[in-house]
Amino acid sequence: MFFDQSEYDNRLTDCRQTMERKGIDVLIDSDPANMNYVTGYDGWSFYIPQAVVIFVDRDQPIWFGRGVDISGARLTTRLSENNIVVYTDDYVHNTTKHPMDVLGELLISYGCGSKTIGLEHDCNYFTPLCRDALQASMPNAEFVDAGKLVNWQRLIKSDAEIEAISSAARITEKIVQTFFDVVEPGVRQCDAVAALYAAQTSGVEGVSGEFCAAIPMLLCGRGTSAPHLPWSGEALKSGEAIILETSGVSHRYHCPMARTVHLGPPPEVLSNASRGVIEGNAAALEVAKAGNTCEDVEAAWREVIGKYGLVKESRIGYPIGIGYPPDWGEHTASLRQGDRTELVPNMVFHLMTGIWMDDWGIEISETFRVTDQGGVPFASVPNALHVKN
Fold first, then answer.
1. Do residues 68 and 45 make contact, with C-beta atoms less than 8 angstroms apart?
2. Is the model's pLDDT at 301 over the cut of 70?
């Protein structure tokens, strides 16, 4: 485990205090990022039902998962043996019974049969069938939507978390430099991505690489207009732009970045957009200081890009930290109009100021930390349109 036990104790204390304010006795959390946040658990087991269960009146949570993953829980958490609970393999992909039947029976045995149970209704890993099985097994309990309770606890990073993101930034720098080096006319997109994966997983001296919560987004030519396309086997072409959005990862903490390369002299429309985005990013970072709000950051950026005739309908950023597939975002605040979330030191955002038009696009993004003086980027990579002649 990367963090001291005191780090997890503090996180759990904050979660229990929020649960108490919301009237939640038991929180069932199936988001793997949240499970990692409160216990340190790390495994590729999120494709089947699992959860961390937090009790408002108990110091230690329960890790609940598939029996074959018990050693993973023992190796990556400091939970006592009694707090690692598994279900047998006959519950896996069984149409007549469900793992949450077991969890419901366990909670009843703990005296929680008539308690208020908080569920994450908007969680990629907690299905309607999970909810139905729990409710059927605990007919006297009251089930409520806990919202993004743990996600919001993650918004302000500790110094140890800042250190982890800083380590991820060193890997991000390596990946982006590899991107600058390998993209050439005639190189297949898949071969470029293979080099990026090698940089991502090998890491840097003193920091090993890890799997990323998202695939490398390598966008080429007209594909730069679509921010979430995968790569192909087509060759890169002279006279086209290539966008990369990816992240280094350390101890599951991400430091996303996007950069754009143009193979040959760029058209004026792209050069103009790059100037607007770069100037807008600087304005946003200047405003991203403690005491301002998320919408203040977006307003500063929007004012600048408007001078360049640019408009961006989507948000320009979101909090990041621990990430598991399918994404590295924390699903809470957003840098956009109407979000009055107040910025606090050690909040960490991905300033994703991509511009996507009908047949072209540009991305030059930064991951930054909120300070009293403004937003401070983690990675040191020139924030320019990179041109390869």
1. no
2. yes
User: Cis omega before residue 267 (within 30°)?
Assistant: no
Name the residue among 51, 30, 36 with its Cα closest to residue 103: 51
- pLDDT one-digit tens code per residue, 6-62: 999 999 999 999 999 999 999 999 999 999 999 999 999 999 999 999 999 999 999
Among 153, 168, 199, the domain boundary falls at 153
For 216-330, where are the E strands, in sequence order? 217-220, 241-250, 253-263, 317-324, 327-329
Beta bridge partners of 114: none
Burial tier of 272 (Cβ tally within 10 Å: 0-12, 13-18, 19+): middle
- 149-196 pLDDT, tens per residue? 999 999 999 999 999 999 999 999 999 999 999 999 999 999 999 999
Yes or no: say if 1 and 40 are a contact pair by the CB < 8 Å rule: yes
- Is 251:275 a contact under the CB 8 Å cutoff? no
Is residue 362 within 8 A of residue 310, CB to CB? The reply is no
Check which CATH number belongs to the domain holding 17 and give it: 3.40.350.10
The C-alpha atoms of residue 311 and residue 174 are separated, in whole angstroms, by: 31
Q: Do the Cβ atoms of 18 and 34 come closer than 8 Å?
A: no
Model-wide pTM > 0.85: yes
**Residue 241, Cα to own-chain centre: how many angstroms?**
26
**Encoded amino acid at 382, one letter:** P
249: which strand partners? 254
Residues 294 and 335 reside in one and the same domain: yes
Indicate if 94 and 215 belong to the same structural domain: no
Which domain, by its residues, includes 366? 159-388
